[in-house]
Amino acid sequence: MKKFYRDWCSGRFQSFVVQYRETDLWIGVDEFEPSMPNAVLELLKALYQQLLEVGRSSAEFFTSLEPVKIDRGPKIAMKMIEAASFANVGPTAAVAGAFADEVGEFLLNKFKCREVVVENGGDVFIKCEKPLISMIYAGDSPLSGKVGLQLPEGTWGVCTSSGKVGHSLSFGNADAVTVVSKSSAIADAFATAYCNRVKSKRDVTALLETAINEHVLGVVVIFEDVLGVKGQFKIVFDTDGDEDETGR
After folding, report:
1. Distance CA 100, CA 117 (A)
2. Confidence (pLDDT) at 239
3. Going from the N-terminus, what domains does the chain have, and what CATH number goes with each?
4. 32 with 107: CB under 8 angstroms?
5. Which of 159, 206, 222, 235 could be disulfide-bonded to 123 (CB atoms 3.0-4.6 Å)?
6. Longest dimension (CA), the chain
């Protein structure tokens, strides 16, 4: 999944990769500075340490499949807890998106980037000043790599969960459920929750009927050859290099 998203990035960004423990980030910025990779690495180390300390005081933080309540903690942990409570999942359902958020915000603030993309295992933080197309990887589905979302100027979290691709825990069978939110942590949590609900093709329509809310701005569901779309974003179809934009 990571290779797909990284191959789809245009020459619009200067890119670099930062890896630490289970985290493998592809980062695109409008202007690269040589100190960025090490600065991001140090941030990752600090974030991991913060979460480990939360786990020592609350074991359920890492194991629960339902929301947990912690009154105080580091920013990344509280962001995960909040996102999990919105989507009714466990905090770790939001961890990849939360890391993408933290790194994206760090680059915007410390290095004054104008545009940033942080991809973390298919969960993406995006800050763009002009429209950007985010294509969707859906494993063996014939629609994989053929469907994308056109995102306008703004800050977005675009996260994908799959019941068939990757190592993350999922109780669903969809090839891909992609959620767009203003927060990658929230998008990650809802992508997990929504993917859990899609076990057959007939579940796609039922999910889309209730998918949009104050946190979820767009949803794309791919189940084999079935495509379901809901929300405010344009859908882009890429067939043999040709793009057809359709508002949904």
Report:
1. 9
2. 53
3. 2-247 (3.10.520.10)
4. no
5. 159
6. 53
Closest CA to 31 of 101, 104, 111, 106: 111
CA pair distance 248, 234, nearest whole angstrom: 6
> pLDDT tens-digit profile of 77-91?
999 999 999 999 999
Residues 235, 186, 7, 166, Cα dihedral to 10°: -110
Low-confidence ranges of the chain (pLDDT < 70): 1-10, 164-170, 239-248
| Whole-number Å distance between alpha carbons of 216 and 211 | 7
Terminal-residue alpha carbon distance, the chain: 26
> What's the one-letter identity of residue 169?
L
50-53, long-range: CB within 8 Å, 24+ apart, which pairs? Answer: 50/74, 50/76, 50/77, 51/76, 51/77, 51/95
Residue 196 identity (one-letter amino acid): N
